[in-house]
Design goal:
The chain is of the alpha+beta class and about 270 residues long. The protein is built from four helices and ten strands. A hairpin with a 4-residue loop joins strand 5 and strand 6. It is rod-shaped and about 140 Å long.
Length: about 270
C-alpha cells in the first residue's frame, strides 16, 4: 500500500509539473494580446465540447497569428500617422512660402509705387521750375506798334525807352516772367504802372494801365495777370508801354524786344 501511495503521489507530481510548464510557455503569448484579442479567441474554445477543444499547440499558433496581425495594424497606423504628419508639414511649408511670396509682391508693389510717385513729383518739380523760368509775351496775340529808341517829342528823353504793344482798352496784361512786384500805382507819365523784379535780377515795367491786379511786394508767376491795358498818363491812345531794365531806376533800360527774345519769347 505504501508503494501504491508513493506511485500515486509521484504521478500527481509529474502531471502538475507538465501543466505548469505549459502555462508558463503561453504566458509570453498572453502578454502580446494586450488588447484582449487572445482572450476573445480563447473564450469560445472553453465553451465548446472538450472533445473539439484546440490543443495548447494550436492555441499558441493562433496567438502568434493574432500577434502578427496586431503588428501589421501598428505598422499601418504608424505609416498613416507619418503620412499625415508629412502632409501637415507640407501644407505649413506651402503656406509659409505663399506668405513669403505675398510679402515680396507687396514690397515690390510698394517700391514701384514709391518710384512712380517720386518720378511724378520730380517731373512736377521740373515742370514747375521750367514754368517759373519761362517767359511769355505781355499781351497775347499782339504786335509791336512802336519800336525801342524811336525819336519824337512825346518822350522826355527824346527817344522811346521801351516798346509799345498794340492792345485795346481792357486787354489782359501778363507778367512776362516770375518775380516780385516792386512798384504798383501811379507812375507820372507812365500813368498806372507795374514794375517787377525778376529772378534773374532784371526788371520789367508795364505802363498806361487802366487798372492794376497786383500790389507791391506780391510775387508773380509767368503769364499771371497784373492789370488791364489802358491810356493813362502820357498816352495818345490805348496800348501797353513795356520796358526792360538792368536796374530799378529810370535810365537803365535795354532793348525790350531783344530781352524777350533772349528769354525765349517769339516776337
Amino acid at each position: 500500500m505504501a508503494f501504491g501511495s508513493r506511485a500515486a503521489g509521484s504521478g500527481k507530481h509529474r502531471g502538475s509539473s507538465r501543466l505548469s510548464r505549459k502555462t508558463a510557455g503561453f504566458a509570453g503569448v498572453a502578454a502580446l494580446a494586450t488588447t484582449g484579442v487572445v482572450g476573445t479567441l480563447a473564450a469560445p474554445a472553453f465553451a465548446a465540447d472538450n472533445s473539439s477543444a484546440p490543443s495548447m499547440e494550436d492555441t499558441g499558433q493562433n496567438a502568434i497569428v493574432v500577434a502578427d496581425g496586431l503588428q501589421d495594424d501598428i505598422e499601418v497606423q504608424a505609416a498613416t500617422q507619418q503620412s499625415a504628419a508629412e502632409a501637415v508639414a507640407a501644407q505649413a511649408q506651402a503656406e509659409a512660402e505663399a506668405k513669403t511670396r505675398a510679402a515680396e509682391a507687396k514690397r515690390t508693389a510698394e517700391a514701384k509705387e514709391k518710384a512712380e510717385r517720386e518720378a511724378a513729383e520730380k517731373a512736377a518739380q521740373e515742370e514747375a521750375r521750367k514754368r517759373l523760368n519761362t517767359f511769355v509775351a505781355p499781351v497775347d496775340g499782339s504786335y509791336v506798334s512802336t519800336q525801342y529808341g524811336a525819336g519824337g517829342g512825346m518822350w522826355s528823353s527824346g527817344s522811346h525807352t521801351g516798346i509799345d504793344f498794340h492792345a485795346d482798352e481792357g486787354s489782359i496784361v501778363h507778367a512776362v516772367g516770375a518775380g516780385t512786384v516792386v512798384e504798383a500805382g501811379w507812375g507820372g507819365a507812365y500813368g498806372n504802372n507795374v514794375v517787377i523784379r525778376h529772378n534773374d535780377g532784371t526788371y520789367t515795367q508795364y505802363g498806361h494801365l487802366m487798372s492794376l491786379s497786383v500790389s507791391a511786394g506780391q510775387t508773380v508767376t509767368p503769364g499771371q495777370q497784373i492789370g488791364l491795358s489802358g491810356s493813362t498818363g502820357n498816352s495818345s491812345g490805348p496800348h501797353l508801354h513795356f520796358e526792360a531794365r538792368t536796374g530799378a531806376t529810370y535810365g537803365t533800360d535795354i532793348n525790350p524786344l531783344t530781352y524777350l527774345r533772349n528769354h525765349g519769347v517769339g516776337i
